[in-house]
Amino acid sequence: MPEAIRSIQRRFPGVPTLEGAGVRLRRSFSNQEVPLFDPFLLLDRFGSSNPADYLAGFPWHPHRGIETVTYVLAGEVAHGDTLGNSGVIGAGDVQWMNSGSGIIHQEMPQRSEHGMSGFQLWVNLPAREKMSVPAYRGLTGPELPEVSTDTGTRVKVVAGAFGGVDGPVRGIPVDPTYLDVRVPPGGEFELPTHPGYTVFSHTIEGAGIFSGDDAAPTVAGETVLFGPGGPVRQRASEQGHRFLLVSGRPLHEPVAWYGPIVMNTAEQLRSAARELQTGDFIKHRRPIVEA
Ligand code: FE2
Question: How many domains does the chain contain in total?
Answer without folding.
Answer: 1
